[in-house]
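User: Sequence recovery, please. Input:
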């Protein structure tokens, strides 16, 4: 398990690794041990800008729950005793947000579609606070995330951030970190924690879709 960073209230944002396996395959006992709750609350992630409030679901069965379509979950810390909000990734960005004033959180799944459709802005807005912190988890970085230059420029224009980069061996790559960081800066969110590692060039530790893990996912959640 990797600790990505710690919010000022002491809450950690963590991401599972290959050692823990795919969270969708965890037993109730393993979920209890790793996430602090018998149930996992996750969405049917569709690369959208849909933000779901976990407050609407209350206490649910002790299972791995994929309830509705969406790519970000907002919630109060107390709900983790009933079910642990979790996003699944294998190259996309896992991101956590925390509201200093309200003590609420949001966790986000953001690939290039989510970045350009506004999922980060939507998650931040759902917290109803102008004083936010953010922590990144591992994802595909510009060293390895090979991407068509024309498509990368179109995406850059959509968010007005140049995400076209040059990676290992001179390949054209997409710099999602630059894009997401600029979005957070624009909306006044403070980024804390370590700079995220690349899932592709660390595929011995993390699942990576681009490196061949097409059906396996890591889980990112608070602890």
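Assistant: Recovered sequence (223 residues):
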């Amino acid at each position: 398990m990797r600790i990505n960073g710690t919010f000022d209230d002491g809450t950690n944002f963590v991401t599972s690794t290959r050692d823990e396996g795919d969270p969708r395959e965890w037993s109730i006992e393993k979920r209890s041990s790793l996430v602090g709750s018998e149930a996992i609350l996750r969405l049917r992630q569709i690369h959208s800008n849909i933000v779901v409030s976990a407050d609407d679901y209350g206490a649910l069965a002790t299972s791995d729950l994929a309830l509705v379509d969406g790519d970000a979950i907002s919630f109060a810390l107390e709900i983790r005793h009933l079910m642990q909000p979790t996003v699944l990734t294998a190259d996309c960005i896992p991101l956590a947000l925390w509201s200093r004033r309200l003590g609420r959180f949001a966790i986000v799944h953001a690939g290039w579609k989510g970045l350009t459709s506004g999922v980060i802005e939507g998650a931040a807005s759902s917290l109803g606070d102008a004083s936010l912190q953010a922590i990144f988890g591992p994802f595909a970085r510009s060293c390895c995330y090979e991407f068509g230059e024309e498509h990368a420029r179109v995406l850059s224009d959509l968010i007005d951030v140049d995400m076209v980069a040059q990676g290992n061996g001179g390949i054209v790559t997409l710099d999602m970190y630059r894009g997401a960081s600029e979005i957070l800066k624009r909306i006044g969110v403070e980024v804390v924690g370590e700079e995220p590692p690349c899932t592709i060039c660390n595929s011995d530790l993390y699942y990576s879709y681009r490196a061949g893990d097409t059906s396996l996912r890591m889980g990112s959640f608070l602890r």
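The CA atoms of residues 116 and 159 lie 6 Å apart.
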